[in-house]
Amino acid sequence: MALLSFLGAIQQVTGSCYLIETHDGARVLLECGMHQGRREEESDNRAAFAFDPKSLDAVVLSHAHIDHSGLLPRLVALGYRGPVHCTEATAELLELMLLDSAQIQEKDAEWENKWRARIGKPMVQPLYTRVDAERTLGQRAPHPYGETFEVARGVAVTFHNAGHILGSSIVQMDVHDHGRTRRLVFSGDLGNVCSPLMPAPTVLKEADVVLMESTYGDRDHRCDEDTLDELAEILQQAHRDGGNVLIPAFAVGRTQDLIFHLGRFYQEGRLPQQAVFLDSPMAIQANAIYHRFHEQFDAKDRALLRSNGVTKVEDWLPILRCTPKAEDSMAINRIQSGAIIIAGSGMCNGGRIVHHLKHNLWRKECHLVFPGFQAQGTLGRAIVDGAPTVRVLRQRIAVKAQVHTLGGFSAHAGQSQLLDWVKHFDHKPELYLVHGELEKMKVLQQALHDRLQWTANIPEPGEQIAL
Ligand SMILES: [Zn+2]
Questions:
Q1: What is the pLDDT of residues 253-291, one digit of tens each?
Q2: What is the rounded distance in angstroms from the CA atom of residue 264 to the CA atom of residue 465?
Q3: Phi and psi (nearest 5°) for 203?
Q4: How far, in Å, from the CA of 343 to the mean position of ligand 1?
Q5: Predicted TM-score of the model (pTM)
Q6: Is 138 left (phi over 0), alpha (psi -120 to 50) or beta?
Q7: Measured in angstroms, how far is the CA atom of residue 68 from the centroid of ligand 1?
Q8: Where are the beta strands (DSSP E) in 378-452?
Q9: Distance, C-alpha 197 to centroid of its chain
Q10: Cα separation of 203 and 200, whole Å?
Q11: Separation of 412 CA from ligand 1 center, angstroms?
Q12: Per residue in 371-408, pLDDT tens?
């Protein structure tokens, strides 16, 4: 009988990791995500894997986000030499994500070693290096959506579009063991049907076991038009207040959605600002990959762009200025008003956004717009939770800017959308909730019970089930 082990993103939202082992000896790792957020969660990244990386036959990846892919270079550094199966667009985005992550790891270790040297403490090694990330990239095995391929003896995988970010997939895994085949469906991160560019998540009907994400299991997002009106109003208010607008956003997914929305405002004459800065080298590169795969965009949005004579999302926002170079980024600091600044990281725990926070957060005429979820323990969460002061770049700074959270821009399905997706499965397969904070999972579990009469399980970290 095959076994499934719940190793990561169990009762939390980062560090996705599941192991599938068959009696015939096949060992497949589904996801190899990094833990993000609190320091103690991040220290989990250095813990030993619960399995020998050399013993794996294959790794299967749902999408490129770091909380699903970020420990791959560590897996490779510890001896994994097999393929990393993913979709074609994920393979391209992975290059951006892993090289960026390796650079952060190297810089973090370098910074820590500076103070360690001063107090005579032993040096630390980076979690992984650029060399490890490059080696990982050499092990990518891209596949189109809908193609079924064998990843290990008796284990076949098919990717279906999850509509979350470019290349994102729902992973269907057919596990043949001891004369019977069981189908595992892992939702990956399911897209929000209201968000632009990506199509709705593919509906599947057959499964024996379903793992479903539950990031927003406790609530519904407001739908697009309301959220867009709210954003338009914030931009008008910022214009009247004479300040800048900062938008911390994930480079892949959220940023492209925002550019799409701002482009629409611009075309409709609803954008009072004179400039939109995209201050994220990774987001700028991600735009190019989005453009290469624009055939995968939602048909309705593709038609809208085409009717305006463009295929590139950024072409219908002519006031967009990309600032890949550090000196161009620093020049933005001199602008006191009239700018929209989109920068990473999405949760403010690093990246160029922290410099812009330093220059704008203490100014009451500025506006800070969070277009997405802020995990516990991040600077973004502290600001959203109303901290009067926060530490930014080792300085304490007053939070005087007006802070807004726009839940509707999430790239994740809300509660009703999760129920809508899962209810299509015939015969109510065994259902496990993963990738969510415990309180939110419990709310979703109750909703599944009340609305679909379906009992969902919330696994414990390290729990194993028979497939
Ligand atoms: Zn994701």
A1: 889 999 999 999 999 999 999 999 999 999 999 999 999
A2: 48
A3: -85, 130
A4: 18
A5: 0.90
A6: alpha
A7: 7
A8: 389-392, 395-398, 402-405, 430-434
A9: 16
A10: 9
A11: 8
A12: 877 888 889 999 999 999 999 988 999 999 999 998 77
